[in-house]
Design goal:
Strand content: 15-25%
Mean pLDDT: 93
Number of domains: 2
Bound molecules: zinc ion
Largest sheet: 3 strands, antiparallel
Radius of gyration: 22 Å
Number of strands: 3
Structural class: alpha+beta
Strand order of the largest sheet: 1-2-3
Number of helices: 6
Length: 154
Amino acid sequence: MRKPLKAQRCDVCGEQSLRRVTVCHEETVTHDGRQQVVRIPDLPAIRCTNPQCRPEHPDDTIILDDNALERISLETYRQLGLLTPPEIRAHRERLRLTQQELADLLRLGGNSLSRWESGAVYQSRSLDTLLRIVFNLPDTVPFLRKRELEAVNV
Ligand SMILES: [Zn+2]
């Protein structure tokens, strides 16, 4: 089991001075060729409270743990107006489509879909819209299947 936070030592100064804090986190994300600021006013994080620790770069004493990184990731999708990776996967599975089947129906190149579902890359806004159409309008998959068959028979 991990030691309680108060008993853990800061990697930099070696003091038992780590405490939970709430920080305002801002980062600039480039998506679809545009820059957008993602702002989380109340991100739980860990900070070294020793004033001697990195006095010239106090922001570097903020430590983002796995929970904080997960929150930043989900919040980034939300603020970009995109489906999150778990949402894409859940919707696809609800339609009982494999990644390959959905990629074929939408004529997606390469492994775009698996990269969206793993969070490796953001889907563009237009392809996010296309996914929402497929996921929300029940007639879309039968329509795409029919179209796929017609294309094969030509
Ligand atoms: Zn420190």
